[in-house]
Structures are given as C-alpha cells and as structure tokens.
Amino acid sequence: MRIRALPLLLLTSCTAAQNTVAPASPSPVAQVTTSSAQGRKLDAATPLKTASSTPFTVSAGWYVTERDGHLLLEDPERQLRLTLLEVPGPSAERALAAAWKQTRPDFALPVKHAAHPPAQDGWDEIFQNTYEPPPQEARVVVGLARRKGDTNYVVLLDGAAAAMDRRGAQAAQVLLGFKSARLGEESFAGKAPLPLTAERLRSFESFIEQARKTMKIPGVAVAVVQGNQVLLEKGFGARELGKPEPVTPETLFLIGSTSKSLTTLMMARLVDEGLFDWDTPATRLLPDFSLADAEVTKKLTVRNTVCACTGMPRQDMEMIFEYAGVTGEQRIAEMRRMKPTTGIGETFQYSNPMVTAGGYMAAHTAEPLFPLGQAYDRVMQSRIFDALGMKSTTFDFARAAKQDHASPHGMTLTLDYTPLPLSQDEVIVPVRPAGGAWSNLRDMERYVMLELSKGRTPEGQKLVSEANMLARREPQVKITDTMSYGLGLMVGEDHGARVIHHGGNTLGFSSDMFFLPDANVGVVLLTNVQGDGPFRNAVRRKFLELLFDGRDEARAQLDFALKNQREQSEKELSAIRAKPDLAWVKTLAGTWYNAGLGRITLRVEGSSAVLDAGEWRSTLGERREKNGARTLVLMDPPMAGTELQPRKEAEHTTLVLEMPQLRYVFEKRAAQASSRP
What we know:
This protein folds into 3 domains: 9-177, Protein Transport Mog1p, Chain A (3-Layer(aba) Sandwich), CATH 3.40.1000; 198-567, Beta-lactamase; 577-668, Lipocalin (Beta Barrel). The chain contains 18 helices and 32 strands. The longest helix is centred in the C-terminal third of the chain and has 21 residues, at 554-574. The relative contact order is 0.13.
C-alpha cells in the first residue's frame, strides 16, 4: 500500500515549522539511564536529553529505552519508533548511514528521496532520506541528520503510517526539540519591530510578486494592517489563469479553514450572551449529536469541538466524494460512524467534522427554529459580518459568483495549475463552519483589526468581551514543542516572536491570516490555488525578516521547497502510466459503492479511462508495483494523485481507498440510491 503526502514530514517539521507556543513551566530534566529491554512508560510529559542536546519533551504514555548509546522512543501503541543518537563526523549524510549501521545493521530499504536543504536556525548542515518500504506495507521510514560542528544529531523514524498520522504532533515535539545546545538559533524574542516604512513594504510587495511568478500562482491578494491602519492592500496577478481580469482588494476568495477563527469568534459572542459557555456539554446544545463512541460523546464540550484535541482523526473523504444537496444535518449524522483514535486532550488531531458540529450546534442555540445550515448563516451574518462591517463576506456561492471573485485552480501531478469549475468547491458548503467563507482583503482587514484590539471594532465598539476573545488563544493541545492549537486558532512563537494564525485550503483556494499581538501588526494572504504551502511559508518568513531585520532566508527556503517538490513529483510520475491498460480497466468498469463515500463509476471513454464521482470526475492512470499489483491513479484535480487499489476478496473484487487511519472499501453493486444517512 502506498501512503502519499508523508515523506517530507520530518524535513518540513524541522525547516519550515512556524508559530510556536511559549515553553511550559520548567521541570527537572531527565538524563535517561534506564536499560530495561521493555522500556519505561512515562506517566507524564517529561523533558529528556542526550549527551550534548538541549532538553526535549516526550509525551505521556510513550516508552523510553536507552541502549548502546542511543535513545529509543516508542508511541503508546508501540507502532512508531524514534531512535535518537549523536554521531561524530563532518558529513550529515555519512552520519545518517552510520546511525543506521550502528542501530540496525541489517537495514537495507532503498532511498526513495534524498534532500539536502539549506542550513538554517544555527545548523551547519541538514540531510534527510525518505526510504521506500515494500508497497504492501503502510509504513513511514525517514532518517534525518542535522550537524553542528563535528556532531550530528540523528533521528531515525520507522513506524506504521497510521501511527504517524495519529501521533505526528507528539513526534514533532521530539523532532523539533532534539537539537544541539550550541546551536545559537536566530531569535526575535525581545526585539522591537522595525517601522514598516514604504521602502520595507515595497520590498515585501516585490518578494510576493517574484514568489507568485516562481510558483505560477494566477492570483494573490495581500494586506498588512497595524492597529487600525491599513499599510498595504494590493492584488497581484489575475482572477483566473489566462484571463485579464486582475485581482483587487475587493476580489472574493474562499478562505477555507481560516473560517474556523470566524466560527469561534461567533461562539465567543454567544458565550458573552449567556447561551452557553465553553465547557457546556455538546449534547446539551444539540441532543441528537453523537459519535461512534458513546463515552466520548458524553464527555465532549463546546470547547472540545474546536480544539483539535478530541482524538478524532482527520476524516475529509466523506465531504469530498459526495456533497451536492447534502445538508448540515446529514453531515452531523455521518459522525455517528466516526471514532476517536486517541483520548481527549492527549494529542493534536485536526478534524473538520468536529468544527462543523461545533459551529452548527452553537448557532442552533441562537436560531433553534431553522435548519442547521440556515441557522449558522443567520447567526454569522448578524453576530459577525454585519456587526463587524464585513460587507462582502458570505457563505453563499451564488452571491459570491455575482461579485468580483477569483476562480479556483487545482494542482496537476506535474505541479501545474488549472482552472476548476466553481461548483467543485461547493464541497465546503455542508461543512461551512470549518471552512466555507468567501471574503476579501477589505473585510479580512477589519477582522484582523478586531483581533489586534482584543474584541473592539475599528470604530472602537466592543464586539466580543476581551475575556472570551482571548479564551480562543489559550493553548489546548501541543502541535510541536513550540506551537499549540487554541480554539480555531494556532498560537505560539516563530523564532521567539509571538504569532497567532490560521491558514486555509479548499480544492481550489488557499489563505493565511496571521498577526503578532506584541507588534500590533497582522497580515492577510489570499490565493486562488490549491496547495500554496511553499509560497505561504516563504511570505510569512519574509515578513518577519523585514519586521525584525532577520536573516535573509525566505527566498532560499522557497527555492528548496519547490526543487524538492519537483523532484518528488518527477519520481512519482515516472512510475505512473498516464494511459492505463484499457482491457484491464474494462474488467473494473461499472458502478461502485461505499457507505460513507457514496457512488463512483468507472468507465472507458475512447482512449481514456475515467472515474466519475458525480460532482467531479478524473481521468485514470495506472501504477504497476514490482510485485505485479496494479493501482488506479486519479490524474486530474481536484483529487490528482489519489489511488484506488483493486483487491481480490473471496469471490469478488473490491476497490480500496487507503488513508493512514481509515480504509474505504467500494463494492460493485446494481444501481441504487446512495446509502448516506
């Protein structure tokens, strides 16, 4: 089984992590001395260290073993292993090879991708290998070496893809925290921000336009606000690829999960009104709400729905495969089949369905006579958009389509952007509390000003109490050693500078909103493409460089990220036949069903094979593994790269869509209606 989108997890965590939380109160540092072959299970989050490293935190429930000069960490289920060791030498690449030889002499997996990113944050050299396990294994294997002077700090990660998906945040705390005590990292802590002069803002504009062209992003909108003053407000490029209409400050974009911060803002207003509080049981607001785990359902509070801390794995396929005409009530009913995979408060797991439920149940308390979607729209309009003067922001696709709006663009397997029908992003409509707002610079500027003023509009009127405004920024669960999730906001530090933010992605748009409360400044970034991560990270880094006279690293980070992305894409494509064996596809042609994802149809059209999901369709390619297994690969956005594996089971064939923690099995049946609840 092939698991996508995981190979660069270590590298991304270590070189592009942003916005971290303040450290917890000091506690004694444990120099691990246990030699038990079984390992010692930690009863609480515990600082550990190796011979010359800084302390790093290992989460409660993990197992710790020291043997033969290295430290072995295992997750609570013992399905994920992180081996940490210090290896002397002048080469990170050679140190990584030596680490495998020292800890696992028989290790022989082939290298899938090698990466040598630019050294930064005080390191002298960074090197990472991603390895390729047998295709039938759902496994992640990565080696990372970072050198300071003549000492290499090596992490060897090997484990089930499901475990990495489930415990990735806890692993990241180790990965980011395991570093040399001699590092001398760049820090903006305590530095006074520089004036955002016209010259600095022009430099910021120039960087954005150059980066946009480098990534071939059709359109970008960016704003910078300080206090209640707009310092920069500008559109770059076009609303749609190949068309002349420019992006302006009034152009609407879908802002995706940045909408979560608006949803929790609405919830804060309703808490102010006394309709509920953050710790009210969720079922008191919506009695029919239920997860597959009855005990967890009983424990869930309003706070839990928007904290990314309930243990619910990311589960987005239901909303992507079938959404036309689906209601909020139906999305909530689907959650009766969803189960948490970790405990409440145990670790960070991002869940769009949970935020959807939280937004709907909160709005239901204020407008109980309306269907959930209509109630949510009414409450957001009256309590937030009208009250804050966000005149253009809407959840209504028809209304957005009549205004100045950008068109969505999906990314192909060749990393090119192509326009998508606006209707494909209607996937977000039934789950709009988690990511369905259309907005523009003018409106988002007012929102950021509200955040900077701790709940007051630009005109000075109190919209939300300071207490409930700031409650959203209280860390609920750690993402890395220096970043946490609050309530619909990510809170923490970036190189010592306190930053609060939330980004967003849909099938054809991306966004970012971040602000630095201590500098009283914020930025809004909107793009009309799927998957703008390298661009977004580089823009944020550049802004911090200008604000704090930081090291000039943004451009190098972007160039490396794009080079790395291109190399991986080329390797993936080399194993895919864009034109599959049509005789083979014909044996699979027909209509297939899954209880959660609904109906898909496979058919041959001329010289092409097609998957039709109803709301969207894609041509199909074919991957052939060394063991002879064949896999169908979706070639077109919005789901380019998604794989379906034909499986022989008893006397019939199924199609399997594998996610790290979830497995969707499609069965071939006679035509029937969808089995959606």
